[in-house]
Amino acid sequence: MGTIGRTHVIGLALLLSGVFYAIPAAAQVDFQGEWAPRFYEDQLERVPGPELGDYLGIPVNDAARMRADTWEASVFTLPEWQCRPHGADYIWRGPSQPIIWNEIDPLTRDIRAIHLEYLRSIDNPIWMDGRPHPDEDALHSWGGFQTGKWEGDMLTVSISHVKESYMRRNGLARSSKAKITEHWIRHGDFLTVMTLTDDPVYTTEPFVRTTDYELNLHGNVPPYPCEMVTEIERPRGVVPSFMPGENPNLKEFGERWGVPYEVTRGGAETMYPDYRKKLKQLMGPYPTAKPLVVQGEQGGQP
């Protein structure tokens, strides 16, 4: 091969290598950055917290209802609860903004892990290198053990080994046996995270939630030092709670919004549109509007 031919071959090889290096790995979306929460109809639940006795639209079983019925909100004043982090499936529902960053393998340049840092500096690494989940008896943590895989442009995360936490901050518990699946979907500067919590102890079906965030280019997540203090003086070993059947707050939600008590008890059937038929039977027909009668007139006729 002549000098000109070798030059052409080398030039073509360099051109092709440049093209290949310029092409990003297939089906990978960059989630890095600080993300600000966006609140819609879920603002009440995520900031002040849901109303007591509101289990509507959640696939709870009798065990979950019993535990929530005996729960008292002032348990959060106990020192061991004051700095307790949210569980992996609930931490997305908080009002603070997360930081997402990639851990890159220095040799292959592959993403070894995607790190999610949230309130109180909880770092949840999502392992992307194909490692298996540990044995069932391995250490459990607030964030659990997380692995991820790409499904098109969507990141799917599988989470196991979580400590016991809560589904909602009104007493509905989530056990340590739960398995959690997340789907991360990015549309421009918006991030939607869908969580599916499958808990064999407290639910009859997976509990599905979606949470939205917007990329915050001016974000500066401050540190969140947490110090435990004595908020209420109690005898040692006292845990605020109600005995079964003695919680006076369970009917307030239904009475406030005109919802039958049976409906507020939740369950898988309350998640689906067909439940509106039963709701109509429980509530009866809407009252018929009465004709407007102006004072001084008879029969409503001028």
Write the layout of secondary structure elements.
Blueprint: H1 3-22, E1 33-38, H2 43-46, H3 62-69, H4 79-82, E2 99-104, E3 111-118, E4 122-127, E5 145-151, E6 154-160, E7 165-166, E8 173-174, E9 179-187, E10 190-198, E11 207-215, H5 252-257, H6 261-264, H7 275-283
Parallel strand pairs: 4-5
Antiparallel strand pairs: 1-2, 1-11, 2-3, 3-4, 5-6, 6-9, 7-8, 9-10, 10-11
What is this entry, summarized?
The chain is α+β, with helices and mostly antiparallel strands and 302 residues long. It has helices at residues 3-22, 43-46, 62-69, 79-82, 252-257, 261-264, 275-283; strands at residues 33-38, 99-104, 111-118, 122-127, 145-151, 154-160, 165-166, 173-174, 179-187, 190-198, 207-215. A hairpin with a 2-residue loop joins β5 and β6 (154-160).
Word description of this protein:
The protein has 302 residues and is an alpha+beta fold. The protein has a domain of 162 residues: Beta Barrel (Lipocalin). Helix content is 18%, strand content 24%. The chain has seven helices and eleven strands. The strands form two sheets. The protein has a nine-stranded mixed β-barrel with strand order 1-2-3-4-5-6-9-10-11. A two-stranded antiparallel sheet has the order 7-8. A hairpin with an 8-residue loop joins strand 10 and strand 11. The longest helix has 20 residues. It is globular, with a radius of gyration of 27 Å. It starts with a helix and ends in a 19-residue tail after the last helix. The C terminus is likely disordered.
